[in-house]
Write a structure and sequence with these properties.
heterodimer; A: 2 domains; B: 279 residues; mainly alpha; MetI-like fold
Chain lengths: 288, 279
């Protein structure tokens, strides 16, 4: 993703002859104002709304909403899911990026498309497919019931749905990065006798680490914030299978707006931290 | 997958391709196939009865209509925003640039309840609009607003690099030769950016069709009026109509495949254009 023009380019543009006419200034003013108005209405005002609603009844009520047992359980479940899903998808992303960036093989473009598939699919489908497999009327439903294993309306189903939704993010971040970096240094290391794992850790990893970090924090943000897919497989059992986004829905439907927006403010903070890390990585040119 | 790789000394081909294919099959491909198989247990007549139910048809119209409208709005404003970020320097430009990705990182449930509060009859913007007789929440307008927010970064992030690629020398040359500003835009800038704009449009459109979390709060979910297709899948699941849910899921999956194919073709077209342009 580009991060806009350099200072040098901008000053060069501004100094070009004939670029300071009235019409240019007018267009410039119009474009910038339209951008600011559009983004304020659509993006900034909802963010402000989360904060003002969360603190509508003061600091004390805001703080008290986290003392609720169900809210606490929801936060714990969300962290648990992220803690399991992020490492799994990171390992997958690294393996997929190594296979796709380092080698040429038949079926590669199909593989890339298949990895992208979860992004294009509705989150509801991501939940639905696991219900069809593991639900009470699903393929393995009877077998699972006989062996007293619950996947749907329990943690395993929520893990699967979250994994599906966040599946491509690390791979998508790493593939173009590793393709662009080429194979020369790795080939040199191998030729000189380093092992495969050693080569990855000592040669490849230092080059891709910031891309990897960004892929992981994006996966994390998505895993913690997923709503649709998890909602389908969760069963909404309070204190048991409610993640933070699902708990927001419950509180909101019970007209506990302060509670709902208080939980929302935590997730918003997570999103802001995610973007901050991303921005720092980009501004410092650390990625690639 | 046949081993047709070029000669390289790098290890790990079998391991990484094997692991990737296995994990991908287990988590993504087999479950998706299971849904298709489940739906194919219906007869054609049953299948069509689910897909052509009036309530379902109404949901297609709503889902496609609002996604299309949101993607169009985003194409216009996304272009304006990308242009402002690439071509102009103004206070707060970097802040806005960083903010563009917010809808990617912000959980959809959060943007859902926040937008509903902003556009409610007594909300900051809803109040102003209500005075003009426009109701946003619990109408198709509200759904469009939510989908516009969700799709915005796709268009901006797609157009931004393409705009940076436009050859300024060509613009200058054209201006020197007496081309008007409109001609420069129409003949030089627009053709360069078009593939990226279409890619962003399609991505935003595709995302809008599948979106659930940010929509259901602002939509109000009135049958025949503000029910989106993904919500109907949820309703069918709640009624234990697994087969019906699978049938609707298959239609949506087919749409996603079609969209993914279109995006890939558009991107290939864009790359080809860029290559020809640079030669």
């Amino acid at each position: 993703m580009s991060s806009g023009p350099s200072r040098q380019l901008l000053s060069e543009l501004a100094s070009r002859p004939g670029r300071n006419s009235l019409a240019d200034k007018l267009i410039r003013w119009m474009f910038i104002s339209l951008s600011v108005v559009f983004l304020s209405a659509l993006l900034i005002s909802p963010l402000m709304m989360v904060l003002t609603s969360a603190f509508a009844k003061g600091m004390a009520v805001y703080a008290r909403s986290f003392l609720d047992e169900d809210t606490f359980a929801a936060i714990k479940l969300t962290l648990t899911i992220a803690l399991i899903v992020v490492p799994l998808n990171t390992v997958f992303g690294i393996a997929a990026a190594w296979a796709i960036a380092k080698f040429e093989f038949r079926g590669k473009s199909i593989l890339i498309t298949a990895i992208d598939l979860p992004i294009a699919v509705s989150p509801i489908i991501s939940g639905l497919i696991y219900i069809l497999l593991f639900g009470s009327q699903g393929w393995f439903g009877l077998w699972l019931q006989e062996h007293d294993i619950s996947i749907i309306f329990a943690l395993p189903g929520m893990l699967l749905a979250t994994m599906f939704v966040t599946f491509p993010y690390v791979a998508r971040e790493l593939i173009p990065l590793m393709q662009q970096l080429g194979n020369d240094e790795e080939e040199a290391a191998i030729t000189m006798g380093a092992g495969g794992l050693m080569t990855f850790i000592r040669v490849t990893l230092p080059k891709i680490r910031w891309g990897l970090v960004y892929g992981m924090i994006l996966t994390n943000a998505r895993a913690m914030g997923e709503f649709g897919a998890v909602s389908v497989v969760s069963g909404h059992i309070r204190g048991l299978t409610n993640t933070m986004p699902l708990h927001i829905e419950i509180l909101y439907n019970e007209y506990d707006y302060v509670g709902a927006f208080a939980v929302a403010s935590l997730l918003m903070a997570l999103a802001i931290i995610t973007l901050l890390i991303k921005t720092v990585i980009e501004w410092r040119g650390l990625r690639g | 997958m046949a081993d047709t790789r070029q000669h390289t000394v790098l290890p790990g081909f079998g391991l990484t391709v094997g692991y990737t294919t296995f994990f991908l099959s287990a988590v993504v491909l087999i479950p998706l196939a299971a849904m298709v198989i489940k739906a194919s247990s219906m007869s054609i007549g049953q299948f069509m009865a689910v897909l052509l139910d009036p309530r379902v048809i109404a949901s297609y119209k709503l889902t496609f209509g609002t996604s299309l409208l949101a993607a169009l709005i985003n194409s216009v404003f996304g272009f304006i925003i990308a242009w402002s970020l690439v071509r102009y320097d103004f206070p707060g430009r970097k802040f806005l640039d960083a903010l563009i990705d917010m809808p990617f990182a912000l959980p959809t449930a959060v943007s859902g309840i926040a937008l509903t509060a902003v556009f409610a009859q007594d909300g900051w913007l809803g109040q102003q609009l209500a005075r003009m007789g426009i109701q946003v929440v619990y109408t198709w307008l509200g759904i469009t607003v939510a989908l516009t927010l969700i799709g915005m970064p796709f268009v901006v992030r797609s157009v931004q690099p393409a705009l940076a690629e436009v050859q300024r020398d060509l613009e200058d040359a054209a201006e020197t030769l007496g081309a008007t500003r409109f001609t420069v835009f129409w003949r030089i800038i627009f053709p360069t950016v078009l593939p990226a704009l279409l890619t962003g449009f399609t991505m935003a459109f595709a995302r809008g069709i599948g979106e659930y979390g940010s929509v259901i709060f602002i939509a109000g979910n009135l049958p025949m009026k503000t029910e989106i297709t993904p919500l109907l899948i949820v309703i069918k699941l709640e009624q234990y109509d697994y087969v019906g849910a699978a049938a609707l899921g298959c239609i949506m999956l087919g749409m996603s495949f079609f969209m993914l194919l279109s995006i890939n073709l558009l991107q290939a077209w864009g790359r080809r254009r860029l290559f020809v342009g640079k030669r």
